[in-house]
Amino acid sequence: MKLTHTQAIQTALCLLALAQAGLSHADAQAGAVIAKNGTAGIAACMQCHGGNDVGNAAAGFPRLAGQNVDYLAKQLADFKAKLRTSPLMGPIASALSPTQMKDVADYYASLPGWKPAPGTPPGSALSVRGAQLAQHGNWDKGMPACFACHGVNGAGIAPHFPAIAGQGAVYIANQLKNWQTGARLTDPQGLMKAVADKLSADDISAVSAYLERPTNPAAGATP
Amino acid sequence: MMRWVNRLTQNGKFHPMWIVLAVVSVLIVASVVLIPSLHEGNKEAAYDPPVHTTPPHPAAANLPEPDAGQADAAPIAPATQPASFTPPAESAMPSGELGDTIKLGRNIFVNTQVYAKGLVGSGLNCVNCHLDAGRKADSAPLWAAYVMFPAYRDKNHKVNSFEDRLAGCFRFSMNGTAPEYNSKEMIALTSYSYWLAKGAPTGVELAGRGYPKLAKPPLAADVQRGASVYQANCALCHGPNGLGTQVNGSYAFPPLWGKDSYNAGAGMHSAKNAAAFIRVNMPLGKGNSLSVQQAWDVAAFVNSHERPVDPRAKQ
Questions:
Q1: How far apart are CA A157 and CA A161, in angstroms?
Q2: Which positions in chain A touch B136 (Cβ < 8 Å)?
């Protein structure tokens, strides 16, 4: 069989793509082992982040499933660099090698992300205010909509802006407070610090309650 | 008449000086009202500082000033403060057929790529430059523009209706085709603008109209300095090459140059508009964090790139 020049290139590209897919699959598998069983001296991620990989909302441990891979890997690196402080995650991240971080990030990114459940009941007054902030922001204070940067319905915009829809209210509220106090310094260009500073305590309660279970996906979020 | 005046004077109820006072006060009031309106005629306070770059499309160089945004008819230093106005809350949108049309206008405005597909030639949505669904002051809000039309515009040397103005947005900023004036898109966008301007005085300059007039930069705008400002502050969302960020094939963050951005006839292709918009609104959530110099520099950098040509240059 004789290949034309174009066919040869196409074949090479296909082989390359297959090789990459295989590699990333292997990474995710190595990550799955760490997530489920832990590794030398490190507890399994699932112990805190939930058996179904969807977090532990009550305890404020975030959902990791379906989160974008670059964001996850960066958070682990930031915990290790102490740009993001957590008595639980600090030691764990410090014990992970860069390859292990990437593997775990690959694993969680490969899982399905949050989807709104059908027949979700209409929101409370709290979530009406939260929906307003998430979808439209509060421009009187110069605050853009959450979804302007975190994507349509909060699904995230890779690589820098994580998914926030379906994330536990306790976790979201804790992070917003951490940005206000400076306990979390991982946001590029201080963008989240700028936004968090424009939120009142009531705003934080409202928007985190809404984001845990957005009930009225925006027809068109406004930057 | 004189006898009546004399009688009042003698009664001690009247002094002739009152007439003088009354006439003088009428003159003062008249001058306060009329003088600024005389200035309305000769505005176009456009200021573009020299930029150290070569325009990418020399063919367009002889064309009139690019679309100078709604604020192109802004009065020069009016003696009075512009009136402040707040558009109605989104939740106050009426129901019924007019409400449906207003809602469609809003949807076209925030998601132009879907609701006015076929009319847009760029990857942009109206809301990219008119933040908060056309509500935000200092981001060319629809309510402030709506009450200022019909208006004479230097851009096309005629009195423009509001529809003409919207058509200009489609032709230049969206690099597309203007909707027919009786099309559902045009009626919906006009209805949405009309509703946002509910209660605003007609023909009155409102605070927050267009983009604010930015002070001159201390140094002439410089594309090289602008490139550094861009990489540090803008590239995160708009991409290292200015081509925006896409999710599932549509732009989550708009392209600032290249084939899917605004064309060279758009208001944003004028340095003063781009610099003012950037200074007040960018990076999103951190408005006014760049210096005036940085805003002019990065505006020059953005507009130094290749983009679709001004459609007037093709004719």
A1: 5
A2: 139
